Amino acid sequence: MEKDLVEYIAKSLVDDPDGVEVNLIEGEKSTILELRVSQDDIGKVIGKHGRIAKAVRTILSASATKTGKRVVLEILD
């Protein structure tokens, strides 16, 4: 669920949607989502002063409240 959400949001933001890759790492108490985009699109995913990244993380935490797990979004370059 969260993986699809991050992938959809990222593909909507970037110029190269084929370059979007999301890896899911399941832990016992938390889930880590690794987001990788093409080098030219990294700024579009992070946003000015990290605003877009913060908004995506807020949406993820709201989405994860029903599962009770903590969700961490890592943007890899």
From TrEMBL:
Biological processes annotated in GO: cell wall organization; peptidoglycan biosynthetic process; regulation of cell shape
Gene3D superfamilies assigned: 3.30.300.20
Localization, UniProt: Cytoplasm
Record keywords, A-Z: Cell shape, Cell wall biogenesis/degradation, Chaperone, Cytoplasm, RNA-binding
Keyword Chaperone: yes
An annotated Gene Ontology molecular function: RNA binding
GO cellular component: cytoplasm
UniProt-listed InterPro entries: KH_dom-like_a/b (IPR015946), KH_sf_prok-type (IPR009019), KhpA (IPR020627)
Pfam family, one: KH_KhpA-B
Endpoints of the signal sequence: none
Main localization of the protein described in the UniProt heading: cytoplasm
Family affiliation: Belongs to the KhpA RNA-binding protein family.
Function summary: A probable RNA chaperone. Forms a complex with KhpB which binds to cellular RNA and controls its expression. Plays a role in peptidoglycan (PG) homeostasis and cell length regulation.
Assembly with partners or alone: Forms a complex with KhpB.
Protein name: RNA-binding protein KhpA
Gene name per UniProt: khpA
